[in-house]
Amino acid sequence: MGDHPLQSALTGGLRALRPVVATVLIFGLFINLLLFVAPLYMLQIYDRVIPSRSETTLIGITVIAAFGLAVYAILDMLRSRLLVRGGVIFDREIANPIFDAAHRGVLLRPGARHETALRDVDVLREFLTGSGMLAFCDLPWIPIFLLACFVLHPWFGWMALVGGGMILGLTLLNEVATRWTLDAASQASQQAGQQAATIFRNGEVLQALGMLASLRGGWRRHHDDVLVLQARASDRAGLIVAATKFVRMLLQTLVLGTGAYLAIHREISAGSMIAASIIIGRTLAPIEAVVGNWKGYTAARASFRRLRELIDVAKPETRRLMLPRPRGLIEAENISVAAPGSTRPILSAVSFRLEPGSLVGIIGPSASGKSTLVRTLTGVWPSREGTVRIDGSDLRHWDKQALGQHIGYLPQDVELFDGTVAQNISRFAAEDDARVIEVARKAGCHALIQALPEGYNTVIGRGGHGLSGGQRQRIALARALYGEPSLVVLDEPNASLDQLGEAALMRAVAALKQSGTTVVIVTHKVSLLADADRVLLMNEGRLQISGTVEQVLSQITGSRPVPTLVPSAGPLAPQGRRDAETQRSAG
Fold first, then answer.
1. Which of 174, 392, 408, 465 is most deeply packed, by most CB within 10 A?
2. Mind listing the pLDDT tens digit for each residue in 10-23?
3. pTM reported for the whole predicted model
4. Half-sphere exposure of 398 (CA within 13 A, CB side)
5. Are 515 and 536 within 8 A, CB to CB?
6. Nearest-angstrom CA–CA distance, 391 and 383
7. Pairing relation of β-strands 487-491 and 518-522?
8. For residue 86, what are the CA distances in angstroms to 27, 91, 130, 214, 303?
């Protein structure tokens, strides 16, 4: 079996880097060979120029050395540019699929912080195209320098081999000694960050209720755990890093001492001693570069692991046949639904059929499964069992993006996005000014928007910051109606509305029904259901009653005890016994 599309995207991005890495390795061979320019130049100075006092020789080898160093600089620049271009290729291959996967991951497993996947892509790209990758690409050419050390004298070769092995071994020991502690510190830091974000997001409540000190204590405990774990890891790493520095400095000292000893006994020349010192330094340079970039390597490895985990969670989105625009026929067949990441079902064996163009109300007490039901109808939450069909086609057979153009959804918790009011209404698609204004009029918020500082061009922050709850809800209603959807799902659409806003909502619902749009409303107010073709009463995750408004009302008022079916502030009252204002008060 082949990799699914997401896995193929990740491996495809890495595969796209292969030609770049191969070229970088080839460039690395010539770059590392050109690193011999400096030691050979010193060798010639001490062994040929100084004894002969030849200025011509000095000028000649200086020109050659300068040319070699210029070629080295050009190749090194080209190698860096190649990696940067490779990073762009890698990002183009993987960024969009991972963005989509992160979106699905957040829906399928909330709280798993899949939104950090885009940062993981950046971390991985930066390592693969930065100094860390260059350090690893230079490692294969270390034997060239080792061979040169052995040529100068076997002692130099063994010193470079043992010293390099000790430095690399100490680096691996540092990784083993601190890995678990740093992982635990990272998790504690994430928990502290999440808790702080939650606290600051609800700053008004904290200020009004005097909760800051109590919640700060909880954050402080997580923060103290981070400090303790990081200090423990730093203590271990500090000891190993100090040992690494000692080995490196001792080796540099011993090279000169050994060279002097061999020169005294005339086994090598003074130039060979200086050249050996430079070459051994070049031998250890890639190892030291790897050590210096080890933190980046571990971060890239962790990012790669998280991306693989995301791929395992976010199932592949295979290409779907583009089905025709739906009429709005909704069928649910024995659906059972659990919240993402949970196994406890919220809905159990729910079945119903909604005819195209019908107005349907969903009522019931709190936690009866109403919002879960509409999330399932819109495809936000998948059903564990059973099937939801739109115009006869299973919801899973529809292309999600294409189907979304035919659905209007107003969630219970309204969320607007950074951008202008017009962009939010048009769902950030290519704006059609006439359509934006038309749909705002249908939603009854045109005058409201005109009263904003910049009208439709007013920039609102994340979550609709700067707008009241009612303003956000009315703009979100216009967004739900944009594009003439076949199915409109409204979850508590009047929760933040005043009497004027509720009247505008009722007019919009009436216009939708008249245009043949299927409308589903979750509500506690019977005033919105006066013209409903059907009402579904949910209770404890099951569809308890289904029928016309009169049928459901008669069964509710004839049942005992009433509070088990509806909230204590009963959503329904017998029609004809109370006027609309009394009904709203009862809601």
1. 408
2. 777 788 888 888 89
3. 0.70
4. 24
5. no
6. 18
7. parallel
8. 15, 9, 10, 50, 18
